[in-house]
Write a structure and sequence with these properties.
Chain lengths: 178, 156
């Protein structure tokens, strides 16, 4: 294995970031411009997968896994089921209602400004130190989450199962109404 | 987790090296995904090149096991299918908790301070960890039993 300097790795990281970021932006634009709601939900999968790739580039392994499992798995499934259950006609010729474009644009710009302002205010120009860490440390982030969950916060973790059970039974009761 | 991977003093070179090792392990995932996409593009592309092109209106009907299709492909589905989506979401969240647990069930972890020195080594969870997770899964399985008893899982 060749010895890589930090600068070479940084260049490679930036190239990978650029490729993924362009893909995410293109998919995001398609997401809001597509005529079909189901296609929009499928473009959302591409956007979320790209974000998961960016998390991997930041060495945030567990966050990326949660992104794939919860967002691409659960949230998109709920979106698709929600679309399938509504009375909205999705066949050919039917298009998405675009009357709310202006308010949506205002909200999007306001959200972007808020998040950019708060992120910039908190982090400023500090760089994330993924380079200065050893392989063991980088690969360990998931293990650290595991240790926190299963050693320090074991009882809350077991309580979570009861919470999920309550959500499951509640959903069944609401959906069956008998 | 190999404890020999932890170098007490990190030079600038090994710092870049370890990060690239971490990302390289995920390069496999990227290559796998790109190969899958390339395979689909290849099969569809080769198919469109070598197949004869004789369009007929009957060929553009939706295939429904040989009979003429009834209705549209975009109907409104019944609300009771939503329960399957909800069941999936619950067990998806369960998988989120199983993932970090699985990384530590059989392997030890070393606690490293800011200068890279190991100050404590925690053992694998072992059978105690197995019991913890089985308890978690058992409580959630009660929900599945409830769904079963309520005949939610029955295909009507």
């Amino acid at each position: 294995m060749s010895i890589l300097a930090v600068t070479e790795v940084l260049v490679a990281q930036n190239i990978a970031f650029a490729i993924i970021a362009v893909g995410v932006v293109v998919a995001g634009v398609r997401l809001v411009t597509t005529e079909n709601v189901v296609h929009a939900a499928l473009w959302l999968v591409v956007v979320l997968a790209g974000i998961a790739g960016l998390y991997i580039l930041l060495a945030a392994e567990f966050t990326a896994i949660v992104q794939v499992l919860v967002y691409i798995g659960a949230i998109v499934v709920l979106f698709l089921f929600g679309i399938m259950l509504t009375r909205a006609r999705l066949g050919e010729g039917e298009t998405v209602n675009k009357k709310m474009r202006a308010p949506a644009l205002v909200i999007a710009v306001a959200m972007f400004a808020l998040m950019a302002y708060s992120l910039w205010g908190y982090f400023g120009s500090t760089e994330l130190e993924v380079m200065g860490r050893s392989t063991a440390e980088l690969g360990q982030t998931t293990a650290q989450v595991a240790d926190t969950l299963f050693l320090t916060y074991l009882i809350p973790f077991e309580v979570v199962s009861v919470l999920l059970l309550a959500a499951l039974t509640g959903a069944i009761v609401l959906a069956r109404r008998d | 987790m190999l404890l020999t991977d932890i170098s007490p003093l990190l030079s600038a070179t090994t710092a870049g090296e370890s990060y690239s090792d971490f990302v390289r392990s995920y390069l496999t995932v990227a290559i796998f995904g790109l190969l899958a996409l390339g395979m689909v593009a290849l099969l569809l592309g080769v198919g469109s090149i070598i197949r004869p092109n004789r369009p007929q209106p009957g060929k553009y009907l939706t295939y429904e096991s040989g009979v003429d299709p009834v209705g549209e492909a975009w109907p409104q589905t019944q609300v009771r299918y939503y329960i399957f989506a909800l069941l999936f979401v619950i067990f998806d969240v369960e998988a989120v908790f199983i993932f970090p647990w699985a990384t530590r069930l059989d392997s030890e972890t070393a606690l490293v301070d800011s200068s890279g020195n190991v100050f404590e080594i925690l053992g694998p969870y072992g059978s105690y960890g197995l019991v913890k997770m089985l308890l978690f899964i058992a409580v959630l399985a009660l929900g599945l039993v409830y769904a079963w008893r309520k005949k939610v899982l029955r295909w009507m």
